[in-house]
Structure to design on (78 residues):
């Protein structure tokens, strides 16, 4: 039987992986296309953010720069 040192719920020295942070900037106004004026996420993305995997969150973040306020457009994937 081997002995391991633990700090909290993880072994000491184990790399801690931080979750993908929310892009929310507390400017929560939804435009006519259903996107938040502050972070550009859809209402569905905002509602599901807490249960998304980091991979799903990263995918959402990739789309945000192309969501120009007022046009509701998704960026093209070339």
């Amino acid at each position: 039987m081997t002995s391991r040192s633990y700090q909290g719920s993880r072994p000491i020295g184990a790399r801690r992986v931080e979750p993908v942070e929310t892009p929310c900037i507390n400017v929560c106004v939804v435009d006519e296309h259903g996107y938040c004026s502050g972070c550009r996420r859809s209402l569905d993305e905002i509602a599901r953010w807490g249960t998304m995997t980091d991979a799903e969150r990263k995918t959402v973040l990739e789309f945000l720069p192309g969501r120009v306020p007022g046009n509701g457009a998704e960026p093209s994937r070339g």
